[in-house]
Amino acid sequence: MSFFIVATLLLSINYCLGDVSHIGLESEYQDKTTTIPPPPVPYSFNYKAGRYPGHVDRFRTESGDGAGVVHGTYSYIDPKFKIRTVDYTADKNGFHPILKNFEDVQAQPQDSEAVKLEKEKHYRLYEKIANRNANPPGLNDNLPRETVSVARAKNRHFELFNKIAAEHEAIAHQREAERLTFEATSVPNNVEAINYY
Q1: Where are the beta strands (DSSP E) in 24-100?
Q2: Cα(154)–Cα(161) distance, integer angstroms
Q3: Whole-model pTM above 0.85?
Q4: Backbone φ, ψ for residue 33 (5° rounding)
């Protein structure tokens, strides 16, 4: 009986000293499974709405293929009681609307007679000022003038420049002659190509 008690005591101590860090953390050690997303699902919807029951002043219809291309149309009544309609397509290249019944909004305003007269007056004044300032009198009077000492220094600079250019040209001819002499008197090296494998 005492052997049985001692064995039970030793087994319980051994169990207490065992690694219990895994208890309660089964989800960490299990493999995670992911589901593949389903194929794109096309959709379509439409609605009509109004400001009060039984009155429709706007509607929208849209359908998508599930892969990113959306076609739709919407329509509304503007404050001038004109029906405005927009057909659109949205895809990877952007949003492409087609406007219907927007001609009066997109038209450029026409100039009135007073505006036309003022524009003509403005253009005449602009031309007058532009012509006057194209060749203003006394423009050359404001440019700096060469003094005698500046003219002498400039001439000296050009003389030295021409002298140096002539010296460089002579050196180039001399080196070319030396190169031709060297090539005429040297024995060419016949180096055979060696193929290393």
Answers
A1: 43-49, 58-64, 70-77, 83-91, 94-100
A2: 10
A3: no
A4: -115, 135
